[in-house]
Amino acid sequence: MNTHDPIVGRYVYVQCEGKTYRTYYEEHGEGIPMVCLHTAGTDGRQYRHQLCDPDISQNFRVIAFDMPWHGKSIPPADFHLMEDEYKLTTKFYCEFIVAFCRALDLRKPVLMGQSMGGNICLALALRYESEFSAFIALEACDYSPGWWIDPLHHPHIHGGEVVATSVFGLMAPLSPDDYRWETWWYYAQGGPGIFKGDLYFYSVDSDFRDQCQKISGKVPIYFLTGEYDFACTPEMTQRTAEKVKNSECIIFGGGHFPTSEDPAKFKEVISPVLKKILSADPERRGQGSNALSGRSISESRSSSRSERPNEGRKVIEF
Amino acid sequence: MSRYGSRSSFDLEWIERWARKVNDDRILPVVGRFFTSKFVLGFDDTEYLVDVRGGKIQKIAQGLTPNDMGVEFWLKAPSSAWSKFAQEVPPPMFNDIWAMAHPLHKQLIIEGNSLPFWQNLRALTRMLSLMRQV
User: Fold this and answer.
1) Do B121 and A169 touch (CB under 8 A)?
2) Contact indicator for A48, A5 with CB cutoff of 8 Å
3) pTM of this prediction?
4) Which single residue of A77, A147, A148, B14 has CA 20 to 30 Å from A205?
5) pLDDT one-digit tens code per residue, A146-160
């Protein structure tokens, strides 16, 4: 007998900043809408485990979309005429997320994003808090410098391999190999320059260090960061959370891509958060039981150089 | 043997054992087929020249001489950082060369021509990860 995932994929046309974006999204479940944001340079496949998890889908309508230029969402029609390289801006990112939610007629969804999708939660909490009922910011902080670099998009360097390999170490060594390499694969499939362009938002255009205190706290923000995240360290998340009203900070034994690198571990850490969101919004839960039991998901499965000896040195030929 | 990071020095004998692990690896001939370069691994003030052709190490040497032309890049870190990197399960911030090199952490210094470094990042990452099996 054939086995299918319960995920359904569709395309929706989203208007943003005067352009139309044919946008791919996948969804499953019923109840509180929960929109999921992928990391830089990848796509919504990072949420395939959560989309399939009956403990989540019985209470949440889980929706993961591919940002323009990513996954199965295409670039705008005139992209070949652009006079600058692709750069994701804070303004566009915010407006697109809101436009996508409106295009699907979602009312006050929960927004869950990781990495750049986590950082944008801060901007949305500042600018569009009335549009959302809760933020789950995975691997997020108020400032994450150092990633907007040319080697990630260079004609002499294989973009897919170098992009994927440069993020591999962000994952925890004990996350399952299969899932770590699946995550590597998502990165290897990104369009040329898209990872780097997303990192313009991540490292350059988004600095919320002086803005976090201005978040009203009307919408709860849950920060979750893995201890192996060297781009957004636990300390960086903790410092951010301390500045944000009505926030919680959870540090766990994982890495930068919790939804895809170790979905079983992620379920352990996200279930208490989802329970809180459910108990704060009981009317909108799905028709299933309120389990979120924590059982395994279905698939669970100094730059000075040393003195150089000129003679008597040891050399080994192979 | 290196799981708990007890190693305090990386001598030539250890580097040789690592090089033999590299040359016995069955993945590197695939992902490192075009990895031909000379680079230097620096542990504190000790440098080892690593001469790679087609993903296999042809020669290692302690220290550099004027005859060592064509060295392309240097990866230098304190032995305390390499020691953590080489643990079977390395601790956070030491599990990856980019983690150690990232401006936030500054444990690893990358010098020289960074182009071949980036071009061969996948094979180089695999190669260095084999330190965990030495």
Assistant:
1) no
2) yes
3) 0.91
4) A77
5) 999 999 999 999 999
